[in-house]
Amino acid sequence: MVEIDWPSYARVYDHFSSEEYAPLVHDFYGWILDRLDEREIEPATIIEIGCGTGLFAAKLAEWYPDATLHLADKNAPMLDVARARLAPTQAEPDAEAETQGGAARLRFHETDADRFLASLPDGGADAVVFCRSWYLVADPPAAARAALRALRPGGMLFLYDPLTTYDVPAVETFFTVREPARWPLFRAALLDFNAGVAAGRYRLYSRDELTALWTAAGGAVGTYESHAPVGNAHRMCVEKR
Ligand SMILES: C[S@@+](CC[C@H](N)C(=O)[O-])C[C@H]1O[C@@H](n2cnc3c(N)ncnc32)[C@H](O)[C@@H]1O
Q1: Would the CB of 17 count as within 6 Å of ligand 1?
Q2: Is ligand 1 within 6 A of the CB of residue 74?
Q3: Is the CB of 50 under 6 A from ligand 1?
C-alpha cells in the first residue's frame, strides 16, 4: 500500500512509540518545552496536527493545564486512543461539537490536516506542532502558509519528521524476537510508509528544502537539528514574524 493502514497501526502504535523504542520523539517533547520557555511563551492555545494517540497532548495538558489544545487527526482509531488517554480532562467527546466552540480545553478534530489548517482562524494560536506528520501534508506550501497564519506574531511552530525511508531488514530480527505478536503490524506500517514515499504520497525534506519552504511561507526559521546518523529524524522550529 502507498498509505499507512492507520486503523491497524493504531493497535500497536503506542507500544512502538515508547521511550524505549522512540527516544528521540520523546526528546522532541522536552525540546519544544525548552524553546517555548526560552521565549517566555506560556501558550494559551496549541494546535497539534496529526496528533495520533495523544502522546504529546498528554504532556502538553500536564505542562500547560490552562491551555486549550486543538488535536487534529484524520483517523478515528487514533483519536479514540487519544480520547481515552486524555479522558480525565476531556469535556467534549463529540467531534462536531468540539469544532463549534464551547468551554472544552481539549478539542478533538477528526479531519484532514490540509483542510483543518485552511479552516483555522488568523492569529489564534501560540504554538503549532507537527510531530511525525509534516511528511503527509498534501500541499506543503499552502499548509505552511495556513499554519503560520494561524499563529499570533511571535508564536512558534515545531516539526519533527523522518529523514529517510526505513531500513526494515535492519530491524527485522530484533523485533521478530522482541515483539513477535506486534511486529507484523509495525512492519507493515514501515513498509507502507516506504511505499508512500516512493509513490510521492509522503514527502521527505532536506534541511534546505524545509528552510526554503517555511521562509517562502513567511516564517523565520529558528533552531534546526538533525539526528542523523544516530536517528532517522530531524526537527525544526519556525517563528511567526
Ligand atoms: C506517525 S503518526 C504521528 C502521531 C503523533 N503526532 C505522534 O508523533 O505520536 C501520524 C498521524 O497522522 C494521522 N494522519 C494521517 N494522514 C492524515 C491526514 N491527511 N490528515 C490528518 N492526519 C493524518 C494518522 O492518523 C496518525 O495519527
Answers
A1: yes
A2: yes
A3: yes
Report the domain count for the chain. 1
- The model scores a pTM over 0.90: yes
**CATH number of residue 214's parent domain:** 3.40.50.150
| Predicted confidence (pLDDT) per residue in 124-146, tens digit | 999 999 999 999 999 999 999 99
CA of residue 74 to ligand 1 center, whole Å: 7
Is 198 a member of any domain? no
Which residues, other chains included, contact 54 with Cβ-Cβ below 8 Å and sequence gap of 6+? 71, 81, 82, 83, 85, 86
Q: 4: phi > 0 → left, psi -120 to 50 → alpha, else beta; which? A: beta
Q: How far is the CA of 8 from the centre of ligand 1 (A)?
A: 13
196 lines ligand 1 (CB under 6 A): no
